[in-house]
Amino acid sequence: MSPRSFIGALWLLWVASWALGSVWAAPTTKSVGGRAERPFRLLMIAGALLIASGAVMAHRPGAGRLWTFNAGAVWALVGLECLGFAFTWWARLHLGRLWSSDVVLKQDHRVVDTGPYAIVRHPIYTGVIVALIAIALWIGTLFSIAGLCLMVRAFWLKARLEERFLSAELGQGAYEAYARRVPMLVPFGPR
Question: How many domains, in total, are found in the chain?
């Protein structure tokens, strides 16, 4: 299997498994609402479209690739993508029934601060960003890099929205204490 096929298969497998995994989530008791989520969702869509456009264009002659990698480096990027996806699944399994793709409060919601949540407050976002870095670097076009930047911004906006919402719903002290101890998206990074 070529690295290109493997990368595509990994993304498809991850998306499909993620969708199937959503059936075990606990019932939602409160939602931040679609209007509040619109800014990060629009950025995610725009970023995904740019990355996809970059991928389509990258393999055409004269496509304007900024760089190319030898086979070993491409497989290293595949490994990085696998690492990112593995981190998302570790976080998702650790979070259990509290997971949601939306910014919501689940039945029996609490601050989860163990496992990958002791490394970063949003390990699922961190893992997806790592996988996106791998794919954007491999594609190597201005479109893919711009798409990556939009996606990182979208995840940052979603994380901030989620933190404000959870702080209000779970009580000021609970989430703020966690936020003071654990960095948001980058291990050992800013809190």
Answer: 1
CA distance linking residue 140 with residue 158, whole number of Å = 26
Residue 57 belongs to some domain of the structure: yes
- Asked whether residue 190 is domain-assigned, the answer is no
Is 158 domain-assigned? yes
The CA dihedral of 158, 92, 88, 16, to the nearest 10 degrees, is -100
DSSP 60: S
DSSP reduced 3-state for 28: strand
Q: Which residues have CB under 8 Å from 101's CB, separation 6+?
A: 22
Domain of residue 157 covers: 38-181
The per-residue pLDDT string of the chain (191 residues; one tens digit each, 9 = 90 and over) reads: 788 788 889 999 999 998 988 888 899 999 998 899 999 999 999 999 999 998 888 777 766 788 989 999 999 999 999 999 999 999 999 999 999 999 999 999 999 999 999 999 999 999 999 999 999 999 999 999 999 999 999 999 999 999 999 999 988 788 889 999 999 999 988 77
User: Could you tell me where the DSSP H helices lie in 99-185?
Assistant: 123-139, 142-170, 172-181
H/E run at residue 6: helix 3-21
Is the CB of residue 49 less than 8 Å from the CB of residue 147? Answer: yes
At 158, the amino acid letter reads: K
- The answer to whether 68 touches 140, Cβ cutoff 8 Å, is yes
Task: Please indicate, yes or no, if residue 171 is contained in any of the structural domains.
Answer: yes
| Residues facing residue 30 across a β-bridge | 105
